[in-house]
UniProtKB/TrEMBL annotation:
One of its GO terms (molecular function) is four-way junction DNA binding. Residues 201-271 are annotated as: Small ATPAse domain (RuvB-S). DNA binds at residues 329, 334. Residues 70-203 form the AAA+ ATPase domain. Residues 20-200 are annotated as: Large ATPase domain (RuvB-L). This is Holliday junction branch migration complex subunit RuvB. It comes from the Bacteria. The gene is ruvB. Pfam families: AAA_lid_4 (PF17864), RuvB_N (PF05496), WHD_RuvB (PF05491). GO terms for biological process: DNA recombination; DNA repair. It catalyses: ATP + H2O = ADP + phosphate + H(+). Homohexamer. Forms an RuvA(8)-RuvB(12)-Holliday junction (HJ) complex. HJ DNA is sandwiched between 2 RuvA tetramers; dsDNA enters through RuvA and exits via RuvB. An RuvB hexamer assembles on each DNA strand where it exits the tetramer. Each RuvB hexamer is contacted by two RuvA subunits (via domain III) on 2 adjacent RuvB subunits; this complex drives branch migration. In the full resolvosome a probable DNA-RuvA(4)-RuvB(12)-RuvC(2) complex forms which resolves the HJ. Belongs to the RuvB family.
Amino acid sequence: MATFDQVGVGDLGGDGTFSSERIVAAGADDLERAAEAALRPRRLEEFVGQAVVRDQLSLVLQAALARGSSPDHVLLSGPPGLGKTTLAMIIAAELGTSLRVTSGPAIQHAGDLAAVLSSLEEGEVLFIDEIHRLARPAEELLYMAMEDFRVDVVVGKGAGASAIPLSLPPFTAVGATTRAGLLPAPLRDRFGFTGHLDFYSSDELERVLARSAGLLGVSLDADAAREIAGRSRGTPRIANRLLRRVRDWAQVRGDGSMDLAAARAALEVYEVDPIGLDRLDRAVLTALCTRFNGGPVGLTTLAVTVGEEAETVETVAEPYLVREGLIGRTPRGRVATPAAWAHLGLTPPREGGTLFDA
Ligand SMILES: Nc1ncnc2c1ncn2[C@@H]1O[C@H](COP(=O)(O)OP(=O)(O)OP(=O)(O)O)[C@@H](O)[C@H]1O
Ligand SMILES: [Mg+2]
């Protein structure tokens, strides 16, 4: 039986891969989520970046407040660590109401969701994390609740079972997903507002870092902030994590000041390179360039070469390498781009090398 306060929020990284032992992983484990709580912006005004989504959301919320009614249901989509949970909390705070938290995986049966829904109070915000992982029967119940503010509660079993309609107070559902594409259209359509979060610019991450340093009570030099931001893969969660590691270094091995030298030294200890690649990322790139002459090479072969499971290489290392234009996926396998060779400081072969050779 699922309960709903704080259930299942921290049990998986948003993308379903649990790789928080990597310092550049986008997901987080429970322990880290606790550390993050202190750094979470509480109001829309404090939420850095995502100007478009912030502006749109602010309109939705202000209009609802002015009308004295619950706003439309909100869907937040985007990669892990970009602020979906944070925004859900902000929505409740801005509306001056409380937030109920549950998640797709925490709801096993439609009855679990019915229990959550029927305990909602007027105007509350129901946050459903990883909403793409809701089971089908629960999903159907949710359609009805979102559209008609009503659920059918089934009592009894077999032939004697009957459905008792139960009306719900108006509430706002906020769904979060890292995989908007997996949401069935009827569910997607029931959200009046969808905000898609994108990776942050270096500028925005520098602002996130400055804010976090203030909250941690440490002073962070502007050029150190820029250095950390550049290695954070466009993700505030990673930026805050690297900031904590730089703070450790400054305290233990430095003189306490968080300057450029401290940032560089700390990130070298943690093997995060200037564009945010870690050891696994670089191992994949290096193998691709030096062992396979830039490819194309099959994923499985590449994975064996770096001593990893194919799935790990595909889900943990590849997305960022592809996003950064360092490797390409072709029907014949993975290939290194000229940027990969350049990043490793290597010269691409002239003959029979990569698909990208002139
Ligand atoms: N716009 C922002 N401004 C400042 N800090 C932010 C912002 N977005 C995210 N953060 C920080 O990054 C951390 C991670 O954000 P959050 O938990 O909201 O991500 P998420 O999108 O829900 O990730 P997941 O998909 O893993 O659940 C938060 O603790 C918060 O401190
Ligand atoms: Mg989240």
